[in-house]
Amino acid sequence: MARIIGGIGSSHVPTIAVAYDKGKQSDPAWAPLFDGYKPVAAWLAEKQADVLVFFYNDHCTTFFFDLYPTFSLGVGEHFPIADEGAGLRDLPPIRGNVDFQAHMAESLVNDEFDIAVFQNKPIDHGCASPLPLLWPHKPDWPGTVVPIAINVLQYPLPTARRCYRLGQAVRRAVESYPEDLKVVVVGTGGLSHQIHGERTGFNNTEWDLKFLELLENDPEALMRMKHADYVRLGGAESVEQIMWLAMRGALGAGPVRKLHQNYYLATTTAMTVVLYEEGEPVAASADKAEPATA
């Protein structure tokens, strides 16, 4: 059967994509970020993951406020990468496994998640920004993606606990699929940032690191938090952190082993990547880069 072999938490800041496309991987302001993804990419290559299930949010690219589903799953052989104003990216379309995606959709609905399904829609930076830092893409991606979009833009939002339970349901869907697939779940967004209003540019490194500690060791504490708590501690847009709980829920109820963590405050967003496997904790391969500005 298919099985989940690990989980990744990642920021999806659009400037990551811009810097990547402009070849700034060795730029002093960006190298601490890009270097932080290398151990994760190496782990994915070593494990030969077949599928990445992405929990992300659409930034009014595929959906708009006149019809914005709480949860939506993409089904299709290919998904174009959206042009969000900087031109088309030099990346192949994201690949999909229709049989697996359709199984996921059916399993989630039968598990009482009333999930929407989309086809032939572009995928924006919520998924596409970190993707080439995780997987090589020439001549094509090495595996397929299941895009699961979560509404963190238009209230009412799903609760942190509901996102965790979505992850649990995704795990059940994966484990009920008969083909032998190695699946990695990816939660994206955040961490602390606010890009509008009086607190524009707000960050909270202390809270970011506390969030990562709780995500690993006490997700129940994060599930008890209200949206207002996330906004107060991390800024308005940091409510995206609830999507990391979907990834954590998919890893199961037992302990997780943090293999790598990199934290870098280079722009208005605290950019982070963390890698987990199931099992007893061990020391991570990295902790954090010093906060900086770029």
From TrEMBL:
Gene Ontology MF: a single term: protocatechuate 4,5-dioxygenase activity
Domain Extradiol ring-cleavage dioxygenase class III enzyme subunit B: 8-271
Superkingdom: Bacteria
Gene3D superfamilies membership: LigB-like
EC number from the UniProt entry: 1.13.11.8
Pfam families: LigB
SUPFAM superfamilies per the UniProt record, alphabetical: LigB-like
UniProt key word Transcription: no
Keywords recorded for this protein, A-Z: Dioxygenase, Oxidoreductase
InterPro entries: Gallate_Doxase_N (IPR034939), Xdiol_dOase_suB (IPR004183)
Protein name: Protocatechuate 4,5-dioxygenase beta chain
Biological source species: Pigmentiphaga humi
Gene that this sequence comes from: ligB_6
